[in-house]
Amino acid sequence: VKTLSKQEVKNILSSRFTDDKFTSLAQLPSPFELKDMQKGVDRIAKAIKNKEKILLVGDYDVDGTTSRVIIEEFFEHIGAEISSITPNRFRDGYGLSVSLIQGTDAKVIITVDNGITSYEAGEYCQENNIDLVITDHHIASELPKAYCIINPKQPKCTFPFAHICGAQIAWYLVAGLKNKLNIDFNMSSLLDILVLAIVADVMPLVSMNRVLTQKGLEVFATSKRPAMLAIKETLNRDIITAQDIGFGIAPKINAAGRMEDAILAIDFLKSQNIEQARKSYAYLNELNAERKQIQEDMFKIACDLYEANNLDDDVIVVASEHFNAGVIGIVASSLVQKYNKASLVGAIDIDTGMAKMSGRSCGNVDLFALLNKSCESVSSFGGHREAVGLNIGVDKIDVFSKKINAVFNESFSYENIDNTFGILDITDIDYELLDIIQSYEPYGHQNEQPTFLIKNIHIISANKIGKDKKTLKLIIDSPQGEIPAIAFNYTQDINKLEEADVDIYASINKNTFRGIDELQLMVSSIEL
Ligand SMILES: [Mn+2]
Questions:
Q1: How far apart are CA 278 and CA 203, in angstroms?
Q2: What pLDDT does residue 507 have?
Q3: How far does residue 465's CA lie from ligand 1's centre (Å)?
Q4: Distance (Å) from CA 238 to ligand 1 centroid
Q5: Using CB atoms within 10 A as the burial measure, which of 99, 127, 342, 520 is most buried?
Q6: Are 298 and 322 in contact (CB under 8 A)?
Q7: What phi and psi values does residue 112 have, to the nearest 5 degrees?
Q8: In DSSP terms, which residues pair with 382 in a beta bridge?
Q9: Cα 357 to ligand 1 centre (Å)
Q10: 226-235 vs 274-309: helix axis angle to the nearest 10?
């Protein structure tokens, strides 16, 4: 880690985008560059024309719910019928399944943000003369039977940028249909919905995703959609950031599917008036608060289970019948943060004798590869480098835990990744630097907001603020005057901070209060 000048900060940030091929909406690849897009669009257009029944199957997270809203909005625009199902996480489980569509009179089924592993449903559709149009962005080693598959991650798809989310493929399907049907429809009008998915599904914010996120945030700022108005009202501003989506909005939309049913999120996004949107958003907020409480309780149990039994394990595997299957992924993330180890958390269903597990990786470890080598006792699994999901018999969990740890010991290890962008001199922290940093927004996955090490700074005052007194507010001395700094979830003693000289890790942010922009440091750690 070296000391950077402002110019060097600018150069490094700008170098992140030198390979970007798509830097404006006009440059985006055509929908028909996706393999089978033409085939899918032709079939759906024919169904619309012949008034054949079309059924849409989505998913319960932000990506899946926004995908459905995008497709439905287009169908409403053209006055065509489509019926939709979003599976319930607890009752139906993930993705298109036979039980979800058994007895349907649909002639065409479209999946969004799922379907690429729906082998049995694929068979069922074929046997029942239903044309299955799969649109998905997940990976599968073997493809299901289908009328056509639109997925940039499948073999032989030459779409130039594969890291797009389910809602982006749904958006592209709409673009393809609009083209095929020769209909006037403003694709930008859906970008306020789409941006939620790109950020919530943690897509890399480079290349075409960067363009769509930037435009999406712009559309959001002026959006008159009641749901967006309610969100902006809650935040008390019109300009929202990718961070607002990732940390504030997405968890609320996800809370619907995690706690009750994703239809609540869909109804919110499709609210017809502001009163309904406000009420709906307030309820999602309530569910999210409940989710947080459950998550805290589960985290405590998970820590106890791990510390009591398997503290030496390199890979954490814990399961309990008291765990909510909708929250296990987030608890796994918390374990990774606390112990710096890859973690798998399982919700046991006593009736079936099965556990649903969700895992999160740590550092450089490829969790999917690790699971692939230790999966003998696992009934089914899927996922990618950073996150996995699996089903396992309760009686097999111990064996699995030993196996995955043995495999890890043999051929995996954790490498510490230092994410510090560089060292900054306190004299360089000013509005010019803030301007440089802001010009490379939106920050997120693969365009991480730079965190700097700022050495030997003097703290003038330290206070705990906020409702629960968990936020630390510092005033820092600088040649340019005093700089405020904020640290969230600061649980340590603040007495030592007052008048202390410390090193801090922080990002350079802006705090807008009553229309006035103020430079503010967002502190991630303090070293006394
Ligand atoms: Mn997705």
A1: 28
A2: 97
A3: 37
A4: 27
A5: 342
A6: yes
A7: -125, 135
A8: 389
A9: 18
A10: 60
